Amino acid sequence: MAHVTSIQYEPVAEIGGGAYGTVYKARDTESGKFVALKSVRVPTDQNGLPVSTVREVALLRRLEQFDHPNVVRLMDVCATQRSNQETKVTLVFEHVDQDLKTYLERTPAPGLSPDCIKDLMRQLLCGLAFLHSNRVMHRDLKPENILVTSQGQVKLADFGLARIYSCHMALTPVVVTLWYRPPEVLLQSTYATPVDIWSTGCIFAEMFRRKPLFCGESEVDQLGKIFEVIGLPPEEEWPTDVTLSRKNFSPLMPRPITDFVAEINEQGAELLLKMLTFDPLKRISALNALEHSYFQDEETLTQTKS
Ligand SMILES: Nc1ncnc2c1ncn2[C@@H]1O[C@H](COP(=O)(O)OP(=O)(O)O)[C@@H](O)[C@H]1O
Ligand SMILES: [Mg+2]
């Protein structure tokens, strides 16, 4: 890790303050380009940085070598020792003009065109398929963590919570922002890469609606809002490793998804439902979603039909 943060990177503005500290826009004095600096303070002892931090950084660096177009570039990692007990680790990312939240807010009425939504979705799923094929789940997908360049290129960001996916790993229970959380996380059941597909489904719907799909105020409320749309899942799909009983919810039937996402076409609606599937094992994968007829152009569709 380099030790030259403050000399090489000149802070320009604060761009976000989240769970792990402030994100700054800065200028790289060597290249003149803008970067985003994200610093994390980590405890240190005589052995140096904690193993978890070193692993996290190594993972980011390994992914970076693939140069995937839909993942934000990690340009540098710097460590500055603050005291005997603390080191500041700064991740230097390429600076991207806006996140998807801002992008959606800036889009004038009546909102994004269906073609634009399809293009953003394809890129988002390409980025996810890449992460998942490397056994990485994002776990906190939401519009604020998806960057969009002024050319409309999607780049996944905020891997602060990403871990190499492994079935036997102890997982932190609170990871995904409530509104984009899948049922298995809300129920504190076991979870894996399908969590990101659920979040992607919520974002897909939001691109049409221009407002979030499920705005719950607590875990139970969030689940209730989900069941109002997809219906209460059958008893046999309810996870067995959870404390919250299915009996706490009213026996709701699924409602037509077009009641909530009016402008979506038939194929889009079908794909959306495959993403918003209660059982994570039955939920569509990123790779299969990319093959869905929603992404095939009209010409190919007519050819396969005839
Ligand atoms: N590379 C970047 N370029 C431009 N803005 C960024 C970049 N990375 C993050 N941001 C902005 O800063 C916000 C917080 O960054 P993020 O990495 O999501 O950290 P946190 O862990 O605090 O959520 C993001 O929602 C986004 O608006
Ligand atoms: Mg974030």
TrEMBL record:
<keyword id="KW-0547">Nucleotide-binding</keyword>
<dbReference type="GO" id="GO:0051301">
    <property type="term" value="P:cell division"/>
</dbReference>
<dbReference type="GO" id="GO:0004693">
    <property type="term" value="F:cyclin-dependent protein serine/threonine kinase activity"/>
</dbReference>
<dbReference type="GO" id="GO:0010468">
    <property type="term" value="P:regulation of gene expression"/>
</dbReference>
<dbReference type="GO" id="GO:0005634">
    <property type="term" value="C:nucleus"/>
</dbReference>
<dbReference type="GO" id="GO:0000307">
    <property type="term" value="C:cyclin-dependent protein kinase holoenzyme complex"/>
</dbReference>
<keyword id="KW-0808">Transferase</keyword>
<dbReference type="InterPro" id="IPR011009">
    <property type="entry name" value="Kinase-like_dom_sf"/>
</dbReference>
<protein>
    <recommendedName>
        <fullName>Cyclin-dependent kinase 4</fullName>
        <ecNumber>2.7.11.22</ecNumber>
    </recommendedName>
</protein>
<comment type="similarity">
    <text>Belongs to the protein kinase superfamily. CMGC Ser/Thr protein kinase family. CDC2/CDKX subfamily.</text>
</comment>
<dbReference type="GO" id="GO:0010389">
    <property type="term" value="P:regulation of G2/M transition of mitotic cell cycle"/>
</dbReference>
<keyword id="KW-0723">Serine/threonine-protein kinase</keyword>
<feature type="domain" description="Protein kinase">
    <location>
        <begin position="9"/>
        <end position="295"/>
    </location>
</feature>
<feature type="binding site">
    <location>
        <position position="38"/>
    </location>
    <ligand>
        <name>ATP</name>
    </ligand>
</feature>
<keyword id="KW-0067">ATP-binding</keyword>
<dbReference type="Pfam" id="PF00069">
    <property type="entry name" value="Pkinase"/>
</dbReference>
<dbReference type="GO" id="GO:0005524">
    <property type="term" value="F:ATP binding"/>
</dbReference>
<dbReference type="InterPro" id="IPR050108">
    <property type="entry name" value="CDK"/>
</dbReference>
<keyword id="KW-0963">Cytoplasm</keyword>
<dbReference type="InterPro" id="IPR000719">
    <property type="entry name" value="Prot_kinase_dom"/>
</dbReference>
<dbReference type="GO" id="GO:0005737">
    <property type="term" value="C:cytoplasm"/>
</dbReference>
<dbReference type="InterPro" id="IPR008271">
    <property type="entry name" value="Ser/Thr_kinase_AS"/>
</dbReference>
<dbReference type="GO" id="GO:0000082">
    <property type="term" value="P:G1/S transition of mitotic cell cycle"/>
</dbReference>
<keyword id="KW-0132">Cell division</keyword>
<keyword id="KW-0597">Phosphoprotein</keyword>
<keyword id="KW-0418">Kinase</keyword>
<dbReference type="GO" id="GO:0030332">
    <property type="term" value="F:cyclin binding"/>
</dbReference>
<keyword id="KW-0131">Cell cycle</keyword>
<dbReference type="GO" id="GO:0007165">
    <property type="term" value="P:signal transduction"/>
</dbReference>
<dbReference type="InterPro" id="IPR017441">
    <property type="entry name" value="Protein_kinase_ATP_BS"/>
</dbReference>
